[in-house]
Design goal:
Blueprint: H1 13-21, H2 26-37, H3 41-115, H4 120-126, H5 128-137, H6 143-155
Helix pairs in contact: 3-5
Length: about 160
């Protein structure tokens, strides 16, 4: 057995107090720790501790990556939904603008129909520019049917 002597160590008083309170012999604990440092197992313990720290960090990273993957997927889904909503809103906006323009042209055409006293040739001649714009917005527009319906409505 090795000869023992007194020495002074600067240690955390609170930690030493807890060890003593828990029944530890601090002198024996320090001696055992010193012997462990010079034992053949010390390097194994040091490497195993390092591996353990790295494995714990790897687990933390994997958890974080799972969270980020889920968040990325949620953002991708939201991005696609917003892209569809933008496209739908733009389409609706364009249709609304077309409808508004068409309504204005139809109102002008109706005034010409009244002034022309429902004469289709007179209307075609007087409203040529307006009719071109109407046909551009609605190629299926039927002038004769429109005049008939308009006349029916105006007779009420």
């Amino acid at each position: 057995m090795a000869e023992k002597g007194r020495t002074t160590l600067y240690l955390d008083k609170e930690l030493i107090g807890k060890l003593i309170e828990d029944g530890w012999n601090v002198s024996a604990l320090v001696s055992e720790a010193l012997e462990l440092v010079y034992s053949p197992d010390w390097e194994d313990m040091r490497i195993l501790t390092k591996i353990n720290i790295m494995e714990n960090r790897k687990e933390e990273i994997e958890k974080e990556l799972k969270i980020l993957t889920l968040r990325t997927e949620a953002l991708r889904v939201e991005d696609e939904r917003l892209a569809r909503n933008i496209d739908d809103t733009k389409t609706e906006w364009e249709l609304t603008k077309r409808t508004t323009r068409l309504s204005g042209y139809i109102t002008s055409l109706n005034h010409i129909i009244i002034v022309s006293m429902y004469d289709i040739e007179e209307i075609k001649s007087s409203a040529k520019d307006i009719l071109d714009k109407i046909y551009e917005l609605n190629p299926d527009f039927d002038l004769e049917s429109h005049i008939m319906r308009f006349k029916t409505v105006m007779e009420y």
